[in-house]
Amino acid sequence: MKSIILFLLVAGVATGQPFPPPSPACDIPAIYNFGDSNSDTGGIAAAFYPPGPPSGETFFKRPVGRASDGRLIIDFIAEKLGLPYLSAYLDSIKANYTHGANFATGGATIKRVNESWFVNDVSPFSLDIQVEQFNQFKDRTIYLFNQAKDDSQRHNLPRPDDFMKAIYTIDIGQNDLAYVFRTIGVEAARAAIPDIIDQLASCIRQLYGKGARSFWIHNTGPIGCLPVTHAKIVNPARGYLDENGCVSGQNLIANEFNEKLRARVVQLRSDLPKAILTYVDMYSAKSQLISNAKNLGFEERFMICCGYHDRDHDIYCGNQGKINGSEVFAGSCKDPTKVISWDGVHYSDAANKWIANQITYGLFSDPPLSIIEICPENKGVSNLSRA
Ligand SMILES: *[C@@H]1O[C@H](CO)[C@@H](O)[C@H](O)[C@H]1NC(C)=O
Ligand SMILES: *[C@@H]1O[C@H](CO)[C@@H](O)[C@H](O)[C@H]1NC(C)=O
Ligand SMILES: *[C@@H]1O[C@H](CO)[C@@H](O)[C@H](O)[C@H]1NC(C)=O
Ligand SMILES: *[C@@H]1O[C@H](CO)[C@@H](O)[C@H](O)[C@H]1NC(C)=O
Question: What is stated as this protein's family in its record (predicted)?
Answer without folding.
Answer: Belongs to the 'GDSL' lipolytic enzyme family.
